[in-house]
């Protein structure tokens, strides 16, 4: 198939990134507001873990079966329709909050589940269209710039969310999701997304999911990285889901400080994404991935060793800013390698399986996260997560297929690359 970028690809991709920024920020403000509402109303690690579990389950269970539709259906529709559905549920949630004195937990959980299902369709769609919207040689940088956009959202959203959560009733705050959907859909209308010639081909869900799994398993180094990433998620996700409780419970902070931690982490991610976006063409991307995994282990585990007082919170801010800087080096560089490893028309099916494999252990960890945090303390989960990250980094380093994967990939790409037009 022809994956030659559009003549004005740069203008097109930046319009797309702008739509992701403006629509994403409203969605994230609402997401933070819901989490803080649960934290304030219940103070329960179990409730927060269950809420995060609902957010992850669709990614784990549906991703392998969503991939075939991503490869064949209209990409723009796959980005727009989930936004409309999420906006409808936001309106339902807002009306319920207006009529009742407090939200039933079951309704909040259903809302979180619907938002996650929408993201399960949108995430592999975005991941699969980037390689057909930009030249191959620019892919790592554009992934870094997408990471910058997502990080910028995470910088602004916690601070804005904390301010709005304190000053605007949550039933009105939730309507920001509707505004975000309207902005995102309007901008996407003007974005050109090349479509695959297999768009009308019949979907065979189980066979296509098996196809994605087989392709992934045949790529030995990437399969090793995927398995290591699944182990990392198992160790890391339980504590990551309890950030608000760490701030408001262990450090005795408030909603504003919980928002500050989220913003500080995201500022770090913005810095890391900026570095990748400007200097992303490394000859071996596995080296920064390995160092990032080690750094995340040190900063995350160190957070769990801090005293539960104001001084400890200050160091928590410092460690999370450093953790934020290194996070994009793992996620962004890995995604760029995946996108360059397979033909664009197969990416939806492969990414669906890969997203599921990388996420599947998260719910397992989350099942135990709440009860464990309530029993041994939330800070102990941060120590466990830090140790797990270090172990996963060491595991990738000692496996030659993982350690040398990008060098072999870039050598193969250099041998087959054709001259691409650029602006």
Gist?
The chain has 423 residues and is mainly alpha-helical. The protein has helices at residues 9-42, 45-72, 75-99, 105-133, 139-167, 170-173, 176-188, 205-218, 220-240, 243-250, 255-279, 286-303, 310-341, 347-359, 361-376, 378-398, 400-403, 405-416.
Task: Give structural notes.
Keywords: Cell membrane, Membrane, Transmembrane, Transmembrane helix, Transport. Its main location: membrane. The chain is an all-alpha fold and 423 residues long. It has a single domain (9-191, 202-416), classed as Up-down Bundle (Growth Hormone, Chain: A), CATH 1.20.1250. Helix content is 82%, strand content 0%. The chain has 18 helices and no strands. The chain has helices at residues 9-42, 45-72, 75-99, 105-133, 139-167, 170-173, 176-188, 205-218, 220-240, 243-250, 255-279, 286-303, 310-341, 347-359, 361-376, 378-398, 400-403, 405-416. The model is unreliable at 418-423 (pLDDT under 50).
């Amino acid at each position: 198939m022809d994956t030659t970028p559009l003549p004005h690809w740069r203008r097109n991709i930046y319009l797309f990134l702008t739509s992701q920024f403006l629509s994403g920020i409203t969605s994230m403000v609402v997401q933070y507001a819901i989490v803080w509402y649960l934290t304030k109303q219940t103070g329960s690690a179990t409730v927060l873990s269950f809420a995060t579990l609902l957010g992850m389950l669709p990614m784990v269970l549906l991703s392998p079966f969503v991939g075939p539709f991503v490869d064949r259906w209209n990409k723009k529709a796959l980005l727009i329709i989930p936004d409309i559905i999420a906006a409808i549920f936001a309106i339902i949630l807002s009306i319920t909050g207006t009529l009742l004195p407090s939200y039933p937990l079951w309704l909040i959980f259903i809302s979180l589940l619907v938002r996650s299902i929408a993201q399960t369709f949108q995430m592999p769609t975005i991941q699969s269209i980037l390689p057909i919207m930009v030249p191959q040689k620019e892919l790592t940088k554009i992934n870094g710039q997408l990471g910058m956009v997502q990080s910028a959202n995470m910088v602004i959203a916690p601070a804005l969310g904390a301010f709005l959560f304190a000053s605007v009733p949550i039933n009105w705050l939730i309507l920001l999701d509707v505004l975000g959907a309207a902005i995102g859909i309007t901008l996407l209308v003007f974005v050109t997304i090349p479509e695959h010639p297999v768009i009308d081909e019949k979907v065979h869900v189980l066979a296509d999911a098996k196809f994605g799994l087989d392709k992934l398993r045949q790529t030995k180094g990437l399969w090793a990285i995927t398995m290591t990433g699944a182990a990392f998620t198992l160790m890391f996700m339980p504590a990551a889901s309890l950030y608000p409780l760490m701030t408001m419970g262990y450090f005795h902070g408030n909603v504003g400080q919980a928002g500050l931690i989220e913003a500080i982490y995201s500022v770090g991610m913005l810095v890391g994404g900026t570095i990748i976006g400007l200097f992303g063409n490394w000859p071996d991307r596995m080296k920064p991935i390995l160092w990032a995994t080690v750094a995340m282990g040190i900063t995350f585990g160190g957070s769990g060793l801090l005293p539960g007082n104001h001084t400890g919170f200050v160091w928590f801010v410092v460690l999370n800013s450093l953790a934020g800087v290194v996070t994009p080096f793992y996620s962004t560089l890995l995604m760029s390698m995946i996108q360059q490893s397979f033909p664009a028309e197969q990416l939806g099916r492969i990414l669906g399986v890969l997203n599921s494999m990388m996420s599947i252990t998260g719910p397992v960890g989350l099942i135990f996260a709440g009860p464990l945090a309530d029993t041994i303390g939330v800070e102990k989960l941060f120590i466990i997560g830090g140790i797990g990250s270090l172990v996963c980094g060491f595991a990738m380093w000692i496996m030659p297929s993982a350690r040398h994967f990008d060098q072999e990939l870039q050598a193969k790409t250099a041998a087959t690359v054709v001259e691409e037009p650029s602006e």
